[in-house]
Amino acid sequence: MSAHLVCGGLTFAEAPVEVRERVAFLPHDIPDALTEMKQELGLTEAVLVSTCNRVEYFGATNTPQRAAESWPLFLKNYHVLDTDVVLPSFQYQDEQCIAHLFEVASGLKSMVVGETEIFGQIKTAYDIAQKNGTTGKWLNRLFQSSFAAAKEVRTHTGITRGSVSVGSVAVELAEKIFSALEGRTVMIMGAGDTSEKTARALKSRGVRSIMVANRTYDRAEKLAIELGGKAIHWDTWETEAVDVDIIISSTSAPHYVLTREKLLHMLKQREARPLFLIDLAVPRDFEPSVNLLDDVYLYDIDDLQSIAQRHLSERLTEIERSREILKPHITRYTTWATQQLEPHNRLS
Amino acid sequence: MTDRYWLIAATVTYLISAAWGIYALGARRSASTPWHDSVLVLGLIFSSIFLYERGEVIRHCPITNLFEVVAFFTWSLVLTYLVIGPVYRMSILGTFTAPLVFCLNFLALVAPIDIPTNRPPLGWVLELHACLSILGFGMLGVAALAGMMYLIQERQLKRRSLDHWFYNLPAMGQLERVHRLVLKWAFLIFSGGMALGFFIPHESTLDWVKVFWSAAVWLLYGGLLLAPKFLPLSHKKVAWASVAGYVFVLLTFWGINSLSQDHRFSLPTDFVAHPVTMEAAS
User: Fold this and answer.
1) How far does CA A340 lie from the centroid of its chain?
2) Which residue in B162, B173, B236 is closest to A294 by CB distance?
3) How does pLDDT run across B160-199, given as a tens digit for each residue?
């Protein structure tokens, strides 16, 4: 039988990217690595999680000390690293290990607290291990409990609420203004990097067409090709803007490109359709007072950044609440595990 | 009357629903849960039983006094929400509906307005006229609530203050769609009710006070529906007009009916110098 749950690994908190990239596992290598790791660490059950921010193992074993000592050696052997390479790895056992997995699955230990991608990554890692037959009753129950716990945390706290990057904040706002982004039209003015990222984020959520206007037509054309949109000549942007829903601007103009007067003229032709203006330029491209006009929603770079920052702070304040929600799940698993270890229940 | 207990039960249910909604919004929890809708369904069942039992007792459609009219009106508000909310995934609308329904029912229960009247058979045209009109008013109420939600969300976006209201309220595009849809149906039903009013035989002259008031309300909502087709009218203005129009309806409904010859409600005897016989209530 397996008396202990163990886990360990390297995360962004302990190891810089230069170290993490050397010990990361490619998805198609994981099945073989799992078998090897299980053997070398003396595990009866094993799951290997490898993402850009963490490389971790979870296991059941009778020899936790051996697992802890063998983990860095396994990494070095598998990735053919020099023996003197330092791998700053953490190690947890039993209840600490349970709490760790539950917190990781809930996004509490992510670089961007509350991000939900990790949930899918852990699920994938578990599925691979299950398919390869390296999980048993301890890890099956542990991972399934962690998924239930993470879902409860997501539902009952604000840990995942609010976007935390400029691009995702812009998408979130656009979705609140237009409901769905399918079929919407975006115009990019100027060919800045953040504009491009924001346009990509909007496109990934269903934006239909993208127009790029730049003082240098060649640059507009280049970006339009990259985004699958169309380039327009700078002197036609005002005419084209009548039909667009979102304008992202990041020109280097020293004055307002879109004034209240110009916009008022444009609005008359828009039949009261909402217009979302994203001003990423410094100095700003849109006259701030346009936000006072009906159906116009203006956000500049400071607005978007402060919203992202506020969301991140709010997520951090939800960590303790999330941990309270996790506690009964941890207790439930521990109680079950203790029952399994009682003499009449010893099956494996 | 024992049928009042059903309305009390419904009112308590709406109170629970309203309290949960307010708590959830305050505690930054999702106010829209299946449980919340189930409570409102239960309240609607209690309200329906009340209206049925009252109808059996008075042998009329239960709109013969102001108390019954309020109960019928709140029933139509909840019914409209329960049709619209789940279909358009707008359960948060229930959080806005429940407090309004609770307040109106509570006032109806505590005010001395449940006065039995002996009235002759009203005829199906008059009863249908009254029912459709009140149902239309109920739906206009839900439209006003949707308009209010639109205005709150619009304000959040304009002020860039994305607090928990921002996340709990649906997108503005969705709110606008639902607002227009409910306005349209409410207007059609209300128009049907008004049109039937002209087919009711009148012994005396036409009830001009009520006719003018109803025509004003009809024109207001008709204008709200048609104006955006011809004018560049922002939905913010439509939402404001919808909310303001409904406040006007709520504030003047009782007063106009008191001034009206055919729509007057009975009052307690110590409230009036001369006992009034109601000719019709709608």
Assistant:
1) 36
2) B236
3) 888 778 888 899 999 999 999 999 999 999 999 989 887 8
Is residue B33 within 8 angstroms of chain A, CB to CB?
no
Other residues' Cβ atoms within 10 Å of the Cβ of residue A343: 5
Other CB atoms within a 10 A radius of the CB of residue B145 amount to 26
Q: What is the DSSP-derived secondary structure letter of residue B277?
A: -
The DSSP result for A236-267, as a single string, is: GHHHHGGG-SEEEE----SS-SB-HHHHHHHH
CB A287 within 8 A of CB A266: no
* Distance in angstroms (rounded) separating the CA atoms of residues B24 and B251: 30
Question: How many percent of chain B have pLDDT more than 70?
Answer: 86
Closest CA to A112 of A51, A159, A171: A159
CA distances to B198, B201, B278 from B125, in Å? 10, 10, 17
Sign for the CA dihedral angle at B93, B96, B99, B100 comes to negative
Q: Delineate the domains of chain A, giving CATH numbers in brackets.
A: 4-159+318-345 (3.30.460.30), 166-308 (3.40.50.720)
A183 Cα to chain B: minimum distance (Å) = 13
Q: B70 by DSSP, 3-state: which?
A: helix
pLDDT per position as a tens digit, B90-119: 888 888 899 999 999 999 999 888 887 766
Is residue B92 a contact partner of residue B149, using CB atoms and an 8 Å limit? Answer: yes
Helix, strand, coil percent values for chain A (each to nearest 5): 55, 15, 30
Residue with tokens 């059950």: A45
Q: What angle do CA B183, B185, B191 make, to 5 degrees?
A: 95
Query: CA nearest B58: which of B154, B161, B127?
Result: B127
pLDDT band at residue B31 using 50, 70 and 90 as cut-offs: low
Most distant CA pair in chain B, distance: 60
CB B67 within 8 A of CB B51: no
B109: buried, middle or exposed (CB in 10 Å: 19+, 13-18, 0-12)? Answer: middle
Q: Tell me, yes or no, if the pTM score tops 0.80.
A: no
Of A337, A341, A326, which is closest to residue A154 (Cα–Cα)?
A: A326
Chain A residues at the B interface, defined by Cβ less than 8 Å, are 155-156, 158, 161-162, 173, 175-180, 267-268, 270-272, 274, 291, 294-295, 297, 299, 303, 307, 310
Q: Which amino acid is at B179?
A: H
CB B6 within 8 A of CB B70: no
Tell whether omega for the bond before A274 is within 30 degrees of 0, i.e. cis: no
Segment holding A92, helix H or strand E? strand A90-93
Contact between residue B25 and residue B91 where contact means Cβ atoms under 8 Å apart = no
3-state secondary structure A155-223: HHCCCCCCCCCHHHHHHHHHHHHHCCCCCCEEEEECCCHHHHHHHHHHHHCCCCEEEEEECCHHHHHHH
List the single residue in B with minimal CA-CA distance to A296: B158
ipTM of the complex: 0.77
- Name residue, tokens 């812009």: A170
